[in-house]
């Protein structure tokens, strides 16, 4: 079948929050836009779907108070949020394997370890304040901080292994989903700066504050509905031809001639597209230094939220357990109870090597360490595996290897001729969140509008 030929001012590749917000702002500025999406749905790394009769947030879902771009859009669209359940006691399993309950934001560890955690947190907050989220590569210490792994840096600051492991958890397991030896201290500082401070990352009541009624994907669905037939699904882009006269964006189903193109997909997918002429050497090298993390997002639904009856919030943290985070993730208006748990980086590698039933059993056993034996028997169970998803290939976002952020960070959003870039992976504030995707899309739309003027 010959592709349909279209013309527009701008083509947007990708219908996640970044691409859709790019298109939304371009349309508002009076430009003709076509959006091409490889998947059969919009939303990118946000995906709300039903599994075994339960509605689940398979992808990104959280809204925090600092995410003003997302909060503003939700307000504009008339969409509401609801708080994560957090009443009752939390559970912590320390390096000694002992289960302890606690309230507040201080883990039940020894006094000396608690002091070290507080001191390391203050060190990180000081670095975040000095380096910032916008141009971390421009800081005088950028190369120094970017050529030492976060794990090594922590152990140079403290000889308390439990304190170091705990601090690493908030960046490595909870955010970048890579081992702390695999990314730099500068990358860790950027992750914290993107949320306003490292303290924000350690406060689950801040960073995991609220959810969108109807699911986070519904935000993209609303944006796509407003764009109407400008959005084409099941249309993976194969080639971008670009030159002085404009761009030609080719897919199996649609070919679009335009003045500019915005590529709004995760960086590991940039190379899935052929460019004619090829991208410059700098871009090729930069993209090879960016990679996704790996995490299994586990959803387990029960007839009732039994942990609440036991006086527990459903929140649990473990520094040496298979599941290192678990939360009450019950959907708005549901009488059943749903837990969400996370298995990250090398721990995910290990359980992915197991047969499916054995992996499920191991994960549920780990959840039961926190919340009791009732956790072993969910009525529905699902694992979000973005690492095997064709048009994502990891989670939650791409980050640089050692030295990459200081070396290439300033060029991440630099256009290549008529090609522009937008995604949460390239954001400063809101990095790897929907908020950052929206910010990135708005910035790309502003750049393109200026170029078309």
Automatic annotation (TrEMBL):
SUPFAM superfamilies: FAD-linked reductases, C-terminal domain, FAD/NAD(P)-binding domain. Residues 18-448 form the Amine oxidase domain. GO terms for molecular function: oxidoreductase activity. Coiled coil: none annotated. Pfam families: Amino_oxidase. Its EC number is 1.-.-.-. Its cofactor is FAD. InterPro entries: Amino_oxidase, FAD/NAD-bd_sf, Flavin_amine_oxidase, Flavin_MAO. It comes from the Bacteria. Keywords: Oxidoreductase. Belongs to the flavin monoamine oxidase family. This is NAD(P)/FAD-dependent oxidoreductase. It comes from Kineococcus endophyticus. The lineage of its organism: Bacteria, Bacillati, Actinomycetota, Actinomycetes, Kineosporiales.
């Amino acid at each position: 079948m010959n592709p349909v030929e279209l013309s527009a001012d701008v083509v947007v590749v990708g219908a996640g929050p970044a691409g859709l917000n790019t298109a939304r702002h371009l349309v508002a500025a009076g430009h003709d836009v076509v959006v091409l999406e490889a998947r059969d749905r919009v939303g990118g790394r946000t995906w709300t779907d039903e599994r075994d009769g339960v509605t689940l947030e398979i992808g990104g879902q959280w809204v925090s108070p600092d995410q003003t771009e997302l909060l503003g859009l939700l307000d504009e669209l008339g969409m509401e949020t609801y708080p994560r359940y957090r009443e009752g006691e939390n559970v912590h399993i320390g390096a000694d394997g002992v289960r302890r309950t606690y309230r507040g934001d201080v883990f039940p560890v020894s006094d000396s370890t608690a002091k070290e955690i507080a001191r390391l947190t203050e060190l990180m907050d000081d670095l975040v304040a000095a380096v910032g989220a916008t141009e971390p590569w421009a800081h005088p210490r950028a190369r120094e901080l970017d050529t030492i792994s976060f794990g090594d840096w922590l152990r140079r600051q403290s000889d308390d292994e439990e304190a170091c492991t705990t601090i690493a958890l908030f960046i490595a397991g909870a955010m970048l989903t890579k081992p702390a030896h695999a990314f730099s201290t500068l990358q860790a500082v950027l992750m914290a700066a993107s949320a306003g401070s490292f303290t924000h990352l350690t406060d689950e009541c801040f960073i995991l504050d609220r959810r969108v009624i109807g699911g986070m994907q519904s935000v993209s669905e609303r944006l796509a509905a407003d764009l109407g037939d400008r959005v084409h699904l099941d249309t993976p882009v194969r080639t971008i031809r670009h030159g002085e006269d404009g761009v030609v964006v080719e897919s199996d189903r649609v070919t679009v001639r335009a003045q500019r193109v915005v590529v709004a997909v995760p960086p590991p997918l940039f190379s899935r597209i052929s460019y004619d002429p090829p991208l410059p050497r700098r871009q090729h090298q930069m993209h090879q230094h960016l990679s996704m993390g790996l995490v299994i997002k586990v959803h387990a639904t029960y007839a009732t939220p039994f942990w609440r009856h036991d006086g527990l919030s459903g929140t649990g943290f473990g520094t040496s357990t298979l599941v290192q985070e678990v939360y009450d993730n019950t959907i708005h208006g549901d009488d059943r109870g749903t837990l969400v748990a996370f298995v990250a980086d090398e721990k995910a590698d290990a359980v992915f090597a197991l047969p499916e039933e054995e992996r499920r059993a191991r994960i549920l056993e780990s959840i039961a360490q926190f919340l009791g034996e009732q956790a072993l028997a969910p009525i529905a169970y699902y694992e979000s595996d973005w690492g095997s998803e064709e048009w994502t290939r990891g989670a939650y976002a791409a980050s640089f290897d050692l030295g990459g952020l200081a070396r290439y960070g300033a060029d991440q959003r630099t256009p290549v001729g008529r090609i522009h870039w937008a995604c949460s992976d390239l954001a400063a504030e809101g990095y790897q969140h929907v908020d950052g995707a929206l910010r990135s899309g708005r910035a790309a739309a502003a750049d393109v509008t200026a170029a078309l003027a």
